[in-house]
Fold these 3 entries.
Entry 1:
Amino acid sequence: MFASNVLSLPARPLPERPPSAARQVRWTDLFVAPPPKHRTNVVMIWSDWSSHSPRALSDLQRVSDELETRGQDVGTFAVAAPGMRKRDADSILRSHDIHLPELQLKLGRVGLTGALNQIPTELIFRDGILLEQRLGPLSYEDLRQWLKAIDQKP
C-alpha cells in the first residue's frame, strides 16, 4: 500500500512530550561507602583505557591539595571504572603521585553516573545528592571554576 498526496495535507505540530521525571541520584545509590562528612564532594570516575585520566587525576589531586591547604570542607575522591584490575589502577595512581581516597561503585550503577563511554567523568555532590556531572577531562582551572560556581549555589 502506498500513500498519495502526503505533502498536500496541512502541517501539524507533533504533540508535546510530557516532562520526564528526572530521578534524583543520591550518594548511597552509587557508592558502597557511606557519604563522607563533607557537605560538598567531587568524585572522578576514571579508567586505564583513557589517555586523559592521568592528567585529569593529577589536576584533581592538585585541587584537592589546594582545598586542604585552605581548610575548605570539600571531599575529593577517585573511582576506578568497573572492570579495571586493582594492580593496574594502583600502578597508575602511584606513578602519577595520586593519593585521593578511592571509592567503589555499587554493582551495575555506572549508568547512573553518565560514565558509560566518557571517561573521566566528574560528579559533584552536595549533602549526598548529585548536583552536576561533567563528561570528559577537566583541567585544574576548570575544576576550580566549577567548584567556585557550585559554592555560589544555595
Entry 2:
Amino acid sequence: MLSCLAMGRVRRGGWRLYLPYLGLNLLVSALTVSAILALTGRGAAITRPTPTPTLDIAARVASAIPTPSPTLPPSPTPHVYVVQSGDTLNAIAEKLGITVEALMAANGLTDPDALDVGQVLVVPSFESGTQPTPAVPARATASSSTSTPLASAQAPRVEIRGVDAPGDLETEAVRLLNTGGVAAMVGWTLDDGEGQNYIFPAFTLHSGAVSVHTRAGTDTVIDLYWGLDEAIWTAGKLITLRDAAGTVRSTFRIPGN
C-alpha cells in the first residue's frame, strides 16, 4: 500500500514536470505554423502573375470604324418650262399656278413681253405644293423639232454623180448631188477641159440633186440649162466642178474609150 501511494505521487509529480515541455512544444508549433504561413504568403506574392490589362473589345472595334461624315440631302431638281409659239408670261404663270412676278424674279426677267420660242424658264417652288402640269415635258420634247438640222451647219459637199445620155443634146445633162450643208453656187463653174465652161447663176443647192442640161431651157430648183446648141459630152471626157474661188470640188470622167 505504501508502495502504491509512493507510485501515485511519483506519477503526479512527473506529469507536472512535462508541462513546461508541452508549453514549449505548443509555442514552437505556433511559431512554425506562423513561419509557414508567412512563407506561403510571400511565395504566393512572388509567383502570382501580373494581371494582364483587360482589353475592351467593343471600344477597340468602335475606334476602328471611321466616323461617318454627315450626308447632305440631294438638291431638288428644278422644274422648267419651255416657251412655245403663242405663249405669254401671264398665260404661263396662270397655267403653272404661280404669279407673274415670281416667274420673272426666278428668271431675272424685266420685260414680261420679252419671250423667245424655245426659251427655258425656271419655275420657282410652289408654296401650295402643286407641281407643273404634265404638259410641260411634252412641250420640251416638241421644242426639239425647232433645232437647226445638222446638215445646214456642215460645209457643202457637191459631187458630180454622172452624165445622162452623153452626145444627145435634148437629153444630155450632168447630175450633181449635195450630201453636205447648203451650197450657194453662184459663180461656180462646170467645164469639159477643152474651153467649154458653164457658170452657175444665183442658185442655192440644199441637200439634194440638180441636173445641168446642155440645151437651152428655163432654170428651176432641180434643173439648170446651159443654153448650148449642140451636145458637148463624149466618152472619156473629164468634167471638173469648181467653186467661186476656183477650188476643184469634184471631177468625173465619162465612161468609154
Entry 3:
Amino acid sequence: MVAITELSKNHSRYKWFVTSSGKMVIGGKSAGQNDELLKIVASIGAELVVMHTADPGSPFSVILASPNKLKESDLEECATFTACFSQAWKRNKKQTAVHIFNSTQLYKTSSMAQGTWAVRGSVKKKIVQLALTLKVQKGVLRAVPFTNKSSKKVTIIVPGTIPKEDMPAKLSLELSEPFSTEEVLAALPAGKMRLMSQ
C-alpha cells in the first residue's frame, strides 16, 4: 500500500524503532500525533496491528506490516515499546498491560478528547516488562525493546531513580561509539531510569 510506504518513509516524525525481524513500528509523540497517526491509518483501510497500554497515557503504536507477516517477537517488541514510552515508565512500574487490536476496530466520535479513540470488539492483552537497550537503527541511536536473544553483554535501561538528564554521562561508558547528549536524550523515554547488565 502506498500510504503505508509513505508512513514508513516519514517514520522520523514519530516515535519509532525497527523490530528484530525488520518491521517498522511507529507511535505518536503526543495526543495530537496519536490522532494524526490513527486518522492516516484509518484512511488506508488496510488492517494493521495497533497497540496502547491498558492505562491512559501511551502512544498508539502501529506495526507497518500485514498482520499475517508478523512473528510473535514483533508483537512482543511492539508491546514493550508501547509500554516503555507510556506513563508506566514515569510511574516506575516494572511491568504493565498492553492492549493489542486491529486498526479496523478503531473509531472516534466528535465528543472524544484529543488522542482518545475507542475500540470495537475484543482486544488481546499482553503483560510486558519495561526494559530497553540502545541500538543504532537507520543511522540513529534508538532505545529499543530489550530481548534476551543477545549473546553478548548488553546494557539494559529500566525505570529507576536516575534523572534522564544524568543518563548521557552514565551511558557514555557503555556505548561503543560517541553520541552527543542530544542524541542520547532524544532516544530515551521520559522519566527516571537506571542501568542493569544482562
